[in-house]
Specification:
With 221 residues, this protein is of the alpha/beta class. The protein has one domain: 3-Layer(aba) Sandwich (Rossmann fold). 52% of the residues lie in helices and 17% in strands. It contains 9 helices and 8 strands. A hairpin with a 2-residue loop joins strand 3 and strand 4.
Length: 221
Amino acid sequence: MQVAIDGPASAGKSTVAKIIAKRLSYIYIDTGAMYRACTVIAKNHNLDYGDEKGILEAVASDGIEFKTEGGEQLVYSAGKDISLEIRTPEISANVSQVSALPGVREEMVSLQRKMAGSTNVVMDGRDIGTTVLPNAEVKIFLVASARSRAERRLLDLKQRGIKSDQTVEEIEADIAARDYKDSHRAVSPLKKADDAVEIDTTNMTIEEVVQSILEQIQKKL
């Protein structure tokens, strides 16, 4: 069983995907974290975020690895836990540019498909249902207002202990800009798959979203 959960930034994809994977004992793969890790690697190597060749070489050198510790999924690169670093405002502001690089997307999509393999998997991102797992049995497309997503992003940063001087209005503007970049990039743009079920999470609780998706999965079992 392959469950693909797509949608724009801060629509709640990762949160609900983790819960669903845990309840069903499926493998969870956070593809957004992989592109964020590529962006951190570029930053740590002092590379321009548009330097495709340099970033690919640095990623090949440092590697990206998921580890589960204490029930939490952590992201490692070059032997270092970068789970918090990938969520910082600088990385959020530049991940769209890095993830739009054709070579980076090709490399990450190949890795994501290998990770999915032939196991039961819940994968979230922006092009899972359209590009990474086009034959997924369940495809979900989460949407929410830019304002509600900005409020969630600010709360998430506080809960993670990541300091940000941005106001909710500034975060909302950043999210709107990222929506535009992600949906207008040339390679694998953010797009709802024709056979995806759209869920507007603006006024829903996490549990309500989880239950809606579990109902869709149940139909396919």
